[in-house]
Structure formats: structure tokens, C-alpha cells
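Contributing: when you submit paired examples, paste them exactly as shown. First protein:
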Amino acid sequence: MKVVARVWCGAGRTVARLRFTLGFVVVLWGVGLATGTLHSGPRPGLRLAAGFGLPALAQGHWWCVVSSALWAGGLPQYFGVTVVVLALCGLAEYRIGSARTAVASLVTYSAGTLGSLAVVAAGILAGDPWSRRLATMVVFTPSAAAFGAAMAASAALPAVWRRRLRLTLIIAMAMMTLYAGVLEDLIRLCAGICGLLLVPLVVRRGERGAGLGPSVVEARLLIAMVVAASAIGPLVAAAPLTFGNPPLSILRYLLTTPHPSATDVTQLCGDPSMSFECGQVRALVRLDGLGPAILSVMPALVMAVMAEGLRRGRRFAWWGAFAANVALAVLGMILLPSELAQASFRSLRESATIAVPLLQPVFVAGMLVVYRNKFDVRAPRGAYRRLMLAVTGVLALSALTYVVGSYLARDQFDRPPTVTQILADLPSRYAPPGYLGEIPITFLPERGAAVLLYGWTGVVFWSVALAGCMATFLRSRVDTSPCGRAQARALLRRYGGEATAHMITWPGHQYWFSDDRQVVVAYRVRSAVALTTGGPVGAPGSLNTAAREFARYCAANGWTPCFYAITDDVRRALGTGWSALQVAEEARLSLPALHFRGKKFQDVRTAINKAKSLGVEPRRIRYREAPPQFTEQVDALSRDWLTKKQLPEMGFTLGSVGELDDEDVWCLAAVGPDGTLHGVTSWLPVWRDGRAIGWTLDFMRRSAHAFPGVMEFLIASMAMSAQDEGAEMLSLSGAPLARIDRDGRRIPLQRLLDFVGLRLEPVYGFRSLFAFKAKFQPEYQPIFMAYPDAAALPRIGSAVAHAYLPHMTLRQTLLLVRTMLTHVPRKPLARAHSVSGDATRPSARGARGDHRCDARRPSPLRRHS
């Protein structure tokens, strides 16, 4: 019932906050249902009475300026409009409120319809055929109101998201208008422009998002979006929705050309007087089939791959995109004289048909030249050499296959070719068919292997080439200097760090050092994300500056920095422009004031007394110095634990047997009178000025026959031993995906992490482990993940998952997903009872209750800390 009530309250708050957006959707579907237009759209009579267009206005239907926003063209359009309205109007209403969103939607839609009318009228006066065709249309465009409202409300977004939203919407509106060319697209474009002009009236100056100019990473993204749009546009122009030859639809002929039928070829070639037309139609036949169709879109795919490389800042992608656009511009210059000779320049469209295909690649190439200094990321050493060898090998192999195979299958062509003719035709197999219209052909395939070789030779080559380019973009250039680990350990001993800072010495890290070599950041690159292990380590006065310098270093290499497992001090030091999520809760004991007295330590004292009665003693030893009997038992415990698990052992910030072999790590084992190992823990040093001032719990294993409370005994024994040595603190490490709700206000992403932690409970027992540590009455410190760009969160999540589970198989992934979907979560951890700074002690109910954890429950005691 509580869950139902919580869901009901959340839905009520959403409806109250988005009442205009949801009301718009309800009215849209309600009107469509009432008029019976949901399935196939408005009938001709209703279309003329309520739709917008010159025919409607000519009959005096002035209300169509507004009424045309209440219908859509059919069921697919209704669903599409609903998605657009929920996304764009919902965003606007979330930022500027319901009233202003309603005003912005109404004003921008009305202005968009009237503005499109003015554009069409101007085109008609100029004699433009495209405008005359638009003047015959009567349309319904409810999505234009959403575009206009979103453009107006974009001023209330932070600078980063404002630029991205505006560029995305402007590219979408302009591309659809210029390439697809229907009246709805023109109305959306005019409404979006009106939305920008409406900003001063809709968004007050104090509400407008502030921010600096685009960073290097963001500039790369914006430029990549423009390059990708130039690639997608011709595909849009080639789609069936293109209407009336809009200005840029001419570019579709660079990709696709109408295919003649076999009947056309027979009729034309059967007439001797139509020899020229016969040659043209025969040339178009080579466009028929799936292989030529794929080859036709290769220029767009090349540009899309280069756009992804540009987003990553790759210099090779810059050269590729620049060369492609220069080639398009040169092709336009070659064709320009013949186009000018045939042009009469009597219409706007005819002028645009000649000018735009030439100017677009010139504009893109010029933009790349202006911002060339932002693309300086280089691939790993040898990557381009391997790419060149692979591409050259595939080119040679495909060419040889085509020549030999075509000669052997020469009887499958309409005219059996000679070797010379096959060699002369070979370059054409790698070019998009749309570029070969003027090149004469001497033979065409008719059946069998000839069709396969003729149509797929170029597809195979370009597929390998593009896959190779993408592979070089995905690989990162990292510094793997063997001395980095030793230098990091030296800095850690000298300056100290966080409780888990010793983890930076584990294998698998790359290291970044400040210019003076006094600060180090340990990181690993996954999915173009530089994922750190904790914060910077080094000279205290340089840590804040080093964190920001490391972020710039990541940007220069095309990576997204993510500071993982950092304290609140590091999070605040990163400054503005960084977002953070809590990913764990560290439990810490202050040793000088620690005494296991009172009722709250009853379980701990019981475990100590039980060990004494059984003759079990704590034995502190270094794993690398331990006798074989000890290491064999530890390995056996770990193997037994792993064999009982259906999922792999986690890594990254969770240690395993491999991390025990360290000169600075102590193992504390519970050993019986007969030498039997009941349980073992490992402890990482916390340094300051060259001495260990504390210890951090990492590795935990217990025997299946261990006495109840063995882990409580080991932790208490380590606390008392470290206390006698004068240590200041003992950290029980962090429990991932478990935390105390300090203020009750959780952002959606934080709620998502809490949900994942609950769902993973039966698998890894993070929350049970968190509750187990509460037996020692620790103070709690939040552990954060900080990132500069929320748009990169999917890649960051992938990088974190790969870091923790690098060897997970497909079967294990499916098992994990099934467990998360079928597990019924327990209630979350209680809120904090008292807070002092960042240190928090949970209430007794939060430490016990549903999360009580004793030594007989294997879940938390067999897990990593």
C-alpha cells in the first residue's frame, strides 16, 4: 500500500507540474477520437475547414491559424506528435511553468503559420515552383507549437544544454524543410525562429541560464552534429516524404537515382533511334539491387563515421571530413559550367539547385578549417599503420576476386567481357552508383555470381574501411609507463590520501602526473571515459588545481573525465560545471575513543568471547611472507566462494586474492588451535607523512565451518591492534550502491542508483553489508562520482560496469538482468538520525530491523567490503 501511495503521489505531482503538456495531449487525442480521425486523419471536408493553407484562407477560414493544431494526419502521426509534445512542451513547462509555456505555444504556432504563408507568397512572386506547390497544401501541424515553445524556453537552460538543444532543433527543422520540403516542415521552422525571438518576453533575465562559451569537448560535439546533419540530409531528401523538389532535394541524386524497370530497357533498346536513351537507361540498371543501394549511401556513412571521430577530437577524422567536403565542392565546380549553360534562373528553386549543392560542402569545410585546432587527438601508436594494412589488403583481395570471378563467370553478363574490359570497369565497383551516370558501360550482370560480384565488391571494401576507422576512433592513446605505479606509490607514502587511496597502486591503472610530478591521478579508460580511482593524490596545496588540469588533459584526448569514489572535499573542489551522485557510503571508526562497551556492542563482544572459548586467535601476517599452508587455505576459501556464485567476482574498488600480494597490505586471519582458517580479512594502509595512520578493510572471506561472528571478531581485533599502535582511524570501506538518505530530497538519477542497489541485493548484498558494519557504530562519509556532462552518463555507466565486471559473459549478464527484474526489493535504509558535518550515525532502526546481519548469514560476510 505504501508503494501504491508513493506512486500515486508522484504521478499527482507530475500531472500538476505538466498540466498544460498533458492537457494538450489529451485534447489532441480527444478531438481526434470525437471526429473519427485517429486512424486515417481528417477527411477532405474537415481538412479544408480546419487545416491551414492558402486554400483554407482563401475561403475565409481565418481560424485555421489555431485550429490546425488540434488534428494530426493519422495514427502514426498522432503517436509521433505525442512524443514530440511530451518531450519539448514538457521540457518547456518544467523550466518556465505552465502559463508561459501555453502562451509560447500559442504565439509561436500562430506566428509559424503566418510566417510560412509569407515565405510561400514571396516564393510565388519570385516564380518558384516549389512555393507554388506548397500553396496547394492544407496541413495540420500540432508539433510546431512544441518546437516553438522549446526554442523559447531554451533560454532558461544552462548554457551547455541551451546550445545543444537549439542546435539540435535548428538542424532538424532546417534539414526537414530544405530536404523534405512539405508545408508542415516550413511551419515548424518559422515557429522555432519565432520562439527564439520570443525569449525576452517569455523568460525573464534572471531566469536565463548563465554560462561560459563552449568548452573544447562541447565545441567538438556541436561541429560533429553539423557534419552529421550534412550526411543525413541527402538521405532525408531521398525518402518518400519529399514533396515538390525542395531547395536541397537535388543532393539526393548524389546518393540515389530513379531505377528503370526491365520493360523500360527492352522498349528503349529495341528502337535503333533511341540509342542514346538506351545507354542512359542501361547505366541506371546498375543501381538496381541491395548491394548498389548500400553503396549509394556510403558517402553519408563515411560522413557519419567522420562525425563520430570529430566528436572524439580525432585529427584523422578532421582530415577525412575535410577531404570529403572538398571532394563534393570540387565535383560541384566540375558540374557547374554545364548547369549554368542550361539554367535560366527564372525561379528561386532553380538558383538554389545550382548554388546550394556547391555552397554546403564549402561551408562545412570552412567551418572545419576555422576550428581545426580543436581536433588534435591522435590514435594509439601503430593504429593507422594497421588500418592502412587492413584496408590495402581488403582492397587488393576484393579487386582480385572481382577480376578473376568476373572472367570465370563472364557468360553470366549480357555481353561477355574481356580481361581488359573488367579491369577498366574495376574502379567503378568502388564508387557510389549515383556518381557514374555519365560513365559508359560495356557489360551488365544478369544472374548468379556476376550479380554478386558486380553489386557487392565495393560494399565489402567500404564496410571494412569504415569499420577500421571506427575502431581507431574507439581506441584510446594512454600512457603505460612502467614507472608510473612506483611513482604513485611514492607520492602516496609521502602525502597520504583518502581511506581507499592505496587502491591506486593496484594493476590496471594508467597514471597522470602534474607538471611538477607532485600530484598523481590513477585512472582507466573505458568507452572513451577516463574513470579515476578516487581523487588526486599528492601535495595538498596542488590537489584542486591538479583535478582541473586532469579534466583538461582528458578533454585534449577526447575522453570524458569521471572522478569516481571521491570524498565531498574533492567534489566541492571541482567547482561549478560538475554534477555528482553518491555511489557508496564509507563506514569509519575513530580509534582513540573506541571502546567495545555498552549494549550497542553486544554482538561484537559476543563474537570476541566465542573466539576465546574456541581457542581461535587473530593472526596478523603479510600474504607474500605467509607460509604455504596459510596461502593455500586462503586460496581455497576464495575458490569455494567463487564456485558457489553464479556471477563473477567484482573488481575495480573491490579487492581479490590478487591484491593481497602487496608489501604494504596486512592480512588478519582467525586461526583455530589446529591451524584451521575460520576467516581472513585484508587491510590497506592510510598514509600520512610516511607512516600509516589508519587502515582500510578490503578483502573478506569466511570458511563454511567458521564460528558465528568470525568477521565481527576479526574487525574488532584489528581495531584494538591498530589502537595499541597509535593509529587514528579504521575504515570499514564503502558499501557500493548503499547510502543513508540524509535530507530526503533525491534527484531522479540518485533514485535510479538506489533502485539498482535494491535490485542487486540478492546478488552482491551491498545493503546487508552496509547494515552489518553498523554493528560497530561507525561514522559515515558519503562517497561520490563526479562528472562534467550529464549527456555522457550512459557511457560512464558502461565504463563503471566494465571496470567492476570486466570478464562478465553473456550468460552471466542475462542472469544478472533476470535477477534484477524478478527480485522484490526490501524497504530502503532509514534516514539519518543525526548529522554532524559529513559524518552521520544511523538510527538504531536503520542499523537493525530488516537489515539485521549476523555471522550465520553468508551474504554480507562473504562479500567484498
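Second protein:
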Amino acid sequence: MSRIYQTPRICNTLLNTGACNDDACTFNHTVYRCEPCNVFVATPWAYQSHVEGKKHKKTVRGHHAAPARNQIHCAPCHTNVPHYDWASHCSGLKHKAREQYVVFQAALEEGQKDKHGVVVSGEFDLGMVEPTAAQVGVVVRASIQNTTPGSKVSLISLAITSDKGTNKKSPFTVKCDHSGVLSYNTAYPFSVTLQQGFLGRAEDLLEIVFEDTQLRKRFAIVRTLSAHVGSLADHEAIGARAPYVPRKRAQRPPEAGWSLPHAPIPTNLASILGSGDTKTVSENVRSLYLPRAFDSNGYGRHFKHLLWVEEHRMENDLGLYDISGTQLSRYQAYYYLEVPGLAEKRPSVLVGDRILVQHQGAADSGRWFEGGVHVVRQKEVGLRFNGLFRSSPADLFSVRFKLNRYPLRRQHLALDSAFSEDRVLFPVAAHVPRTPIPTSRNTIVKVSNALIATNPAQLQAVMSIVKRPAGSVPFIIFGPPGTGKTVTAVEAIRQVLAASPNARVLACAPSNSAADLIASRLMELGNEVLFRFYAPSRHKEQVDLGLREFTHVTADGHFSVPPLAIMKRFRVIVTTCVSASVVSGIGIPRGHYSHIFIDEAGQATEPEAMIAIQTMADNNTNIVLSGDPKQLGPIIRSPIARELGLEISYIERLMQRDVYDEQAGYGKTVVKLTQNFRSHPSILKFPNEQFYRGELEPHGDRKVTELYANSPLLPKRGFPIIFHSLAGKDDREASSPSFFNIDEASQVRTYVEILRGDSKHGVRTGVRITDADIGVIAPYHAQCLKIRTLLRTVAEGVKVGSVEEFQGQERKVIIISTVRSSREFVSYDLRHTLGFVANPRRFNVAVTRAQSLLIVVGDPNVLGLDPLWRSFLNYVYTNGGWTGADIPWDASVEVDAGAGNAYADQARSNAVFDMNDFTRRMEELTVAAGAEGDGDDVNVDRPWREAE
């Protein structure tokens, strides 16, 4: 019996326009929309009939159809499923089979990659093979080569997958005359033989097992074997007119010397990343690609996929900087391109990068030419193209920027390593030596920095590092703001060198500025002991004169490394985390460095930190991390990568483990520094109680910290914090989604004028400071530009930047402009990136940069919706630091720290804001964007990391 469906009465306005604004309408408003066709239908079966029709298929042919409003995209099946059918779809055999296949395909793609510097070369797709030849046997020649100098890798076995525990007889056999250690850059041949007495296709997998003998860790490289046994004459006679010829994957020959894996994003993964919201895509990546257990066995695979997820977003975000309708000017061999925002590193362009240009309106307008960057100036770059490129001064071009993949490739190289020590990656109590904690009573340490001798925590950290047995778990110097974690790490390096003539140190940091700080404090060691490595892309003018004698420069003026024998003599090498791969690349053997130090470790992603560790550490290497997980972590652009954990740094992940409990592990695995040498006690008090359980002790130089304690600029003498309540209006340029607030920018300028001694405002601070003593922090790039413009004729030397740009720095005076004021964007602020308002770590860094005076300019109506900011504003108000418009709530009422959006909800329920149609539409968009993680504009103000 056929089923008869009663079609509900659907609102015609809704069907025709997609929206009905008549509150009195009583017709059914549940419809199904086909987004590609922009068609609305009334029932699920009508929708199904539509998508099976020719018109729909013609519309979406060649395009991936996005899921409709009432559909869910199934990534494994590459289809959109109606909500009502989702459970049934997921329980179906076809879906489960497809899901299993995707998981297998991910594992296969991972296995097919060359690893740990070992390259397997050869053509393993035999293509069409005549039956007579297949019956006798067809032999394929291939080779194995170790491309990493200094590594100790042995060949263990070669085997065909079908021969391992199955009853299936494989048509392929493999033979290799070599076993044991693979010498550097020597090709070891082996052969694969196909022998099959019947027609048909032959497929199998070749598994090659290796072992890093120094680490005693095994790894495998897989190759797919395939052939088609058949008559070529027959296929030509009766085959299709345009037969499909599979594209053969040519094996790249290994490069001479040090080479990096190309590590392209897997095609299936890229397809999944391009569809669905953040939550759905994150779940798909987690279930299909990430190992089920996060442990040493799947560690590399886990982070390689997170790197690919991040790279996918970085590539997309580069599109924000595409240029259209621009001209090139030629001078000698170079074509010069003006790049807006180059000085702000938006985009960041370095010597060695590649840029694509395309003629507009010319005969070859569809062709892209790739130019290499040879010159980088303040506003323009100099490019060189191949001989086919032609340009006249009147020509117009489109420009695209290519992502510099070298930092990513170096991380992939490290993750391909066989190093997987649990005591480094997943330490537990059993890995901690039972030796007693060294104390000043049983250990005599003659410190180089006399101040450390009077600081118990710093002294304990130094002694614990120096006296650790080889091969211990990583040691952490937990350094809250202004407590001297870098000073402690530098002292520990000095003491390690003094304690043993065989000690060697590789010291790294995420940024060049942080690495320079380490090197500058070690210069007394002399250039026979200390070497500072810079990437060739770094210009000499960017390097302090005092550090240049600790570097090596080639004849053409680029930074490089001296010969291997000389490099081995240096007892301390200082570099960035990304550039740390150079030491293994030039042939320095694993284990050469007894200690690996990573300063500001909280700012590096875990794969970045692993570049030094996984390429240079052996079973005896000691690792020391210094940083503060409660300050800003690494800059991650992809919301999916953040959801999957890439934003959690190595030091933060370790500190979440029981073995790094601050009390139980004190002196054995971690030391927390508690003496703050930076800020006035009133500036330190609030972040100390919020983030550090009140354990920090103010020990700053009172000549600095009390500089403004009695200034007439303060609303209350003795309390050097000002909150200037200002309900301005935030806005955006037509060309940029980044917010700015002109009123706040003007107020910031006024404060700078007063601080620099301008008497026109009628306030004399009585303090003389320079531009370099003042820092201005704003969460939006547009606001930074506006403030810089206003300060150009007032105090051009004042640094204006984001919170990220100020981490690790300090100023006598810090001014914070919070920017946002518009009421209709309140929900947006809480859900997304109102700078540090929605991020406690940003707040922590921002308010702890000031030594003598902290000024915050903002709208309390917006800031007060966030519990952390409301608590801070209450603290300032009750201590007399408030100025400007009055506080809009009762500051004596205790703030609920876990209120979340409760204060925003309360404000809405009290009708503080005009909930008009625009606000409702905005909130609907905000809710949708919140569910998806980040909107299109969210990364506009997220800084780009300086790649090398």
C-alpha cells in the first residue's frame, strides 16, 4: 500500500522569500531550503525529490553543495543528511564502512611519508604488464637512503603486508641484501618482484621497518605496490576512446645534504577542513585522523595533523592581503611591489618568500608568475622572476602571497623523528629520580648574579637544574610576570657549564627578541664559547651590534653557520625554536648537547618546542623550560586547531600533569618564582590574587615603582592605577573589519601629552620620562594605527601594539585602550575577540606590563559584562582610581567569578540596550558564528607569528 502524505499548509511568503515577518501568521514555518538553488520546499520528501532532480544536479555540478539549514554534512560520506535522518544514517552499514575506510586511508597516508630523514625511492606502480612478462616475473629496482647526517638508523626488515599472518599469497616479493646501519647519503638498493600468472590488477603494501639505534625506537615507511596484468593490444582495440590513465606519483630524488619533508596537507583532510562548522569539523578530525590515545606511539601523528589544520587556516587568512590593480616598478634586476601594511607585518614578508603576480586584462591574464623576494624595505619588496616574465610601467597586476612553509616543514621533520621518550613527553612519578632535592645547605653554588643568592626560589631552581641526573624529566621554571625567569635560566646555563667541562647547551626561545635577551646576558662567556645563530632571512641591521661578533656571516652578507668542526666547539648555541633544526641539519649528532633550554616556552606551540628536543635529545639529555602558562600562549589562527589543543603549549601541558604539582614537585620538577621585581604593589595586587593565589611578593625598585605614587595626575594619591570611564563609539573602516574608537584614541593622546610634560592640559606630573618609557596596548589593529597617527607629532617614539607584542616587556607607564563601546555588539564581544576582555591571559599580560603607572581607557558598560573585568573595575573604583563617567553598577556587590554571560543576560533582561530588529539579527548571526567558533573577521587582529 502506498503511503499518502498530507502536505502541511506552508506560509507562501516564507516559501517565496525565505522570511516571514508577520507575527500574526498562523501557517507552518518549517521549511527545507536548498542553498545552491535558493529554493524552499515544505516537506522532507519534497526536498529529497528536489535534490534528485536534473535542475538541482546541474546547479551543483562541479561544486560541493553546502548543507542546508536543516541538514548535517557527513564528511566520510561526502554528503548532506537531513537532521531527521542523521541517526539512521550514522548507524547504516554504508556510513560505518566509509568511516572505517577514511580512518584506514589516514593511517596509510601517514605511513607513506618518508620519516626521520630516511627516503625510500622507486617507482612502485608498474602500470600495465603483459601476461607473459608477469608470469616470468617483473622486477622493480628501488633504494633506501639516510639523508640526515649524524643519525644512527638501522634497517630491520622489508615485508609484504599480505604475507604477515594471512592466507593470501601476494604476487609481490621483496629482496634486499642489506641489513643494519644506514650510512649517511648512501643508497641501499632493494628489489620488488611481481609474478602473477593470470590477468587482473595486483595491489599490496610494502612495509619497511627501521630503528633509531641511539634511541632504541622503531618506525616504518610504507609503499603501495600496484600493477595491471593484461594485454595492451586488447586494451587498445576494445578499450574506451579516452581511457583513464592513473597519474603516477614520481618519487623525488633525495637532495644532497640536509633536506626537509614537503609534508603537504592530505587531500582528504583538506576536504573536511573546507566544510562544516568548527565543532563538526573538529569532531571529524578527532575521530578520523587523530590517534585514539594521546601517547608516545601516536604523538607525531597527532601533532602533524594539528599543524595541517593550522596551515589550512593560515593559507585562507593570507587571502585578506591579496592585492588587485597594482603596478610594479623596475630597477635593474628587481621588480618592486608596494605592499600595504608591510611595516606592520600584515602580511609578514621575508627575504626568500615567494609572491605570485598575474597580469590583469593582458593576453596571458590567466597565468600566474612566481617571484622570489630578494629585498624587503619599509613599504615595498623587491622581486625577481624567471626570463619569461614581462612588464611595462602601465601594466596592472593581481598579487597573492604564498605561505612560508619552512617553519611548518621543520616541525614536521621533528615530528617524524623516532624520539618518543615518555619521561620527556608524558612524565610520571616513576620517571622522577629519588635523589634528595639539593639545597643551599648541601650545595655550594657561586652565582654570577649576586641578586640570585638572596632569592630562595631562583637559587633553588639553579641548584635543581645543575644537580639533576642525566636523563631526568623536564624541569620547569614557573616565572609569573616580573619574577626573573630569564635571569634564572641564564644563571642556570652558566652554572651547568661551570659544573662540567663536557656540558653543552642548546638555548632556544620562540622569538628573536627573546633569544637575543638570552644571548646578550651570556656575552661575557666570549665568542669562543657562545654562538648566536640567525636565519639567513634576517638582516644585519636587525641585530644588535654587541651580538654580531657572536654570529657567522657569509661573503654575500647573509647569516649562516661556520664549518661543522667549529660549531661543535661552541658550548652554548642560542637560536629561535624554529631555527634550532639547523644544528641537526649540519650534522651535529643527537646527544651532543647535554642540556636543552627553552625560554618563554609558553609562547611556543608544542611542535615548535619539539624541533630542538626531537632532533637533538637522546636518552641522557636534560631539558629545562621557563615560562608562565597563565600568560599568553602561542598564536593560533585556526579555531579548529585551538579546539583540538594546539594552543596548549608544551610547558602548560606538562604542568597539568600530577608530577608537576607546584608543592609536591617543588625542587624536583618545578620551582615557582615568587618575587616580583617589576610593579608597584597596587598594580601587582589584583593579578596576583586572580592568577597566582596571592603568592607573588613585590620587590621592585621603589625609585621606579613609586615614580607616580604622589602625582597630581592620579584620582587618588598613592594608588597609581587610573580607569578612565569613556563611553565612546567603536567603528570600522569600509576596507577593514578591525574596530577603532576615535574618542579613546584622543584620550590616550591626552594622557601621553600630560606624561611628556605638555602643560596645555593644566596637569603637571612632576616626573620626567621619555617616549621609550610609555607603552600603549590596544586589542585591535585599526586602533593601533589611529593612535600612532595621533601620536606622530606628539611622541612618535611611544610603542603602540597588541598584547602579544608586549609580552615579556615592561614600561614605566602602560596605557590600555579597550576600544569597544557599541551596545549592539555586546554579545559579540563576549563570544569572540574583544581583545583581552574575553581572554584572561590577555588581561593578565596587559595589566602586568606597568612598573609605575597603569591607565585603562574603556567603556564600563561593555567591560563590566565580563566577570574578570568587573572585578578589576570594582578594585580600581573602591581604591579611588576611577575617573570619567560613573560606574554603572554597585561596586560593593561581590562579583560572581563563574557568572559567564550572566551579567550580559542581566543587562539585556533589564532593557539596558535597545533590542531592535538590528540587534536581534545581529544576535542571531552572533549565535551562529559562536557555534562555528570564529567568524570571517576574527583573525584580522590576531598577530602573525614572525616566521623564519
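If you have annotations for the second protein, write them as plain sentences, like these:
The radius of gyration is 31 Å.
Residues 1-65 form one domain.
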